[in-house]
């Protein structure tokens, strides 16, 4: 193949030519990439209707807006001022509890759905290709449609309130968790599966006695992570009328009740981070226990 | 198929049970723990159902309406609105692209500010990091609502919403990447007598650039997904069309739009994975 012996080429000349070649291709790539990037940027700029005047006019507006949402807090009358800022704390806490419960029930139903679908959606557990394919596609569709779109559809069917929110979150989480769960299933140690199969276990028994004990800690960890995500989504999903604190936030933003906006946003931030921190503690606790075994 | 089974003699099973009782049944404490867990779970579920006022009648009538709606989704049709829908999709992609671009550009200097090895004052570090936390804690949809009040309805508000909410996330990620950068390289540049800005440029930036690129690409992918829904609150793109079609009960068009969203998300997923693999691969093999 190679007409010249390697030793006959001057190594310096060889290096120079390879280096020049590499430089040229890299420069060509960069040029192409730059042109593509510039074109995309220009097109996006036009399509997204971006105007610097609007931004320049709007930018002070943003700071103005944030400033308006900040409450008047005076040191002399701090308790009264706080009370005035958080005048709706009773109603808002109840709505926050709703939001957390929407996240909880949605996660629970999502875990239920995904743990039914994830075993047939695992390549190593499902010999029936058609059923495997069907479950995979079902999970894919469930997770590809955003929660808010499901919520829009369900609000139309079930009316305003937390129920459509729960269902929207449940379907989306079932899809997202189903993918993660089936990946966990595909990474299990197959000797346990073979052991149960050798002792005459049926498919359900294989899943119950060989797979579930191996994957349960991972499932629990993913479910808890999903719960954190779902509480966030539950707070947002109210924007389209699916209950919880989001519905109230949407209302106060639309009605320009400025101090209430900051009060509710801070309340949501606080709740979400409290849940994140406690869930992280629990997860680390579980993972720690796992590693000891 | 099934191989011949070896059955353990009964005496052997009894022997095993006597020696390893915990393999055969739960201890009293374990039973009690499980009972408490199951009980509190059931109580929590009942409380949720009571608190949310979910009734079987509402569930039934809703399910019936959902079935009727689902039947109307098929066959999906665009009724001559295809060009409008495609333009809306383009708008969504443009929002995601520019939003991510602005977010990463703003996040690079912010990331340097938030890195402990650049700004070592712990008080300043704490304030900057909490500032990032608050910005990324507020969802893009809330930012969209706020920006609609500021710059009006349309995709521009969506671009700003994505840019601001992702700026917080990316700044945090970049700051962490900068904190994790290799000290030797920085010291090497410093030893040549480089100024501060040269240390940043030649000591740190080459190390964190792959992280910045791959994260930006990843967030572009995730933003195309969030950009599809920003329109629901009025920030342009395909979500606006979707919310409109639901409002006026054109269900076959809703079906069409949902399928368009599904296809776009799948395409972007595939492309982005391809590009990310290439970027990571290049970063690894380049001498």
Tell the overall outline of chain B: extended
Please provide the count of β strands of chain B.
0
Number of helices of chain B: 12
CATH topology of the largest domain in chain B: MetI-like fold
Structural commentary:
The complex is a heterodimer of chains A (293) and B (287). Chain A is mainly α and 293 residues long. Chain A contains eleven helices and no strands. In chain A, helix 5 crosses helix 7 (162-186) and helix 6 packs across helix 7 (162-186). Chain B has 287 residues and is an all-alpha fold. Chain B starts with 9 loop residues before the first helix and ends with a helix. Chains A and B meet through helix 1, helix 2, helix 4, helix 6 and helix 7 of A and helix 3, helix 4, helix 5, helix 6 and helix 7 of B.
Structure characteristics:
heterodimer, A: 293 residues, mainly alpha, 11 helices, 80% helix, B: 287 residues, MetI-like fold, 2 domains, 12 helices, 81% helix
Secondary structure: elements and pairs:
The complex is a heterodimer of chains A (293) and B (287).
Chain A: H1 11-47, H2 52-69, H3 78-85, H4 89-117, H5 129-144, H6 147-158, H7 162-186, H8 190-198, H9 203-237, H10 245-254, H11 258-292
Helix pairs in contact in A: 2-11, 4-7, 4-9, 5-7, 6-7, 7-9, 8-9, 9-11, 10-11
Chain B: H1 10-19, H2 21-24, H3 28-52, H4 56-73, H5 82-114, H6 122-137, H7 140-151, H8 155-179, H9 183-191, H10 196-230, H11 238-247, H12 251-285
Helix pairs in contact in B: 4-12, 5-8, 5-10, 5-11, 6-8, 7-8, 8-10, 9-10, 10-12, 11-12
Q: How would you summarize this macromolecular structure in one to three sentences?
A:
The complex is a heterodimer of chains A (293) and B (287). With 293 residues, chain A is mainly α.
